[in-house]
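Researcher: Let's run the pair from yesterday's discussion. Sequence first, then tokens, for each.
Model: Starting with the first of the pair.
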Amino acid sequence: MDEFLNNVNPTNDSPTPISLLLKLHTVKPFNCPSLMKALFGIWSSQCHFPVSVSEHVDGLFLVTFGCEGDKGRVLEGQPWHFAQSITIFAAPESSFPITPENLHYVPFWIQVYGIPFMCKSYELVRFIASEISDLIEVDKDTVKEGTRPYLRIRILLDVNLPIRKGMNIRFIKRGREFVKWLDFKYERLPDFCFFCGKLDHTKRYYRAYL
């Protein structure tokens, strides 16, 4: 008679928490309980299930959601602010510990102004995005001429680098070559330093003036 031995170790049937790690990108001192209370209040009104925000380790916070849909809504709504400083998210990884230094990418919508008439195109979108960072998506309606006075693109911004206020682009129109300065307007941009262009401090905390 054959004998079946069940040597499989019992598994933990509890569901994996749906969570994100969060960092507040700032050199300014801030109140942790106030941050947790503020973000809890904002996200609880937009999510279908309760959201919890708790202190984690190394200055990080743990945000736990009731469903993947709520997590997606918070990520899609980026960037989020507290006290005019930006928040940065990352998914917890058991095999690769997340440290505050690893968190420095945030999606932003940028409106690009100053594009000459009949010069909007997806090629221009890709070129502009390649000069800034990775392209996430394009507001297709703004690529059409006569709809908006700007191109609207969503890019993944490295917030450790100074933000760009615009760029010069060489255009060729009807056989004529010319250079045009394009202005960038960042939607929901928090406070930043007008001296160096970085987002983690303002003029008051600029190291050269401390």
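Model: Moving on to the second of the pair.
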Amino acid sequence: MLFSSSSSLSADDFEALRRLIYEQSGIWLGDTKQPFLQLRLQERLLSRNITSAREYYHFLKYDPLGSDEMQRLLDAVTINESWFFRESAPLLAWRDTILPALMKQKQPVRLWSAACSTGEEPYTLAMLLLEMMPQATLAQLEIVATDISLRALEAARTGIYDPHSLRHTEPRWVTRYFQPVANGGQRVGEAVRRLVHFGQGNLLDQGVSARVGRVDLILCRNVLIYFNEQSRQKALNNLYSALHAGSHLLLGHSETLAHTMSSFEVARVGGSILYAKPATP
């Protein structure tokens, strides 16, 4: 092993690496995450034939291949746990309450799944919208899905999922919108896939909102909890700038902006709490 009990990741090396990860992604690994990072480093050091965390840090910082390896490290430390129809009640509330009037005002309606992980969230959103608009085209609806992890995006574009990802999916959804593949997997059908466009995006990048373009709903769920206050504020500013006036941000059920400085207003939509960018006076 690269790290034995007597040669574990030192406090200084942990500090240097977690600050580098933070600078690149906004993810802050707390003090309790030192064993987690040590475990994730095992494979990366072996793949580069590097024998110490200190040497690995210098490789990331100064080697011409460092930026490519940084992406691989971010892939290793980001958490991509997701499943279909996760916390779907707020999505249904927005669809049933906001979308009908929105469709009468403008087309296409554009939605952004920020930090989309392996794709379950944007595909769920597409299925819920297709239930209301079975013949929807990109001229009417467009879902942009971004994530910092290239590995997660590759899985999302492939669109093949095992039973674990479908554990909260009713059989009727599987029958209607999936196609069975080998080894018990299910592939998302073309009617759903054509509404979703995937691309890499860092929520801390000031240019991310410009690349995505203005949208009518943003899903950024179970992501900000991994950011410290400074990163959270920067991400929220970028999300805010991407929204049309009067449009909404949806966070995870355990997330709140109650103690965060932002221009968002609390909006109750069909029994769910969303956050709205104030409408233009």
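Researcher: Give me one sentence on the second I can quote.
Model: The longest helix spans residues 11-25.
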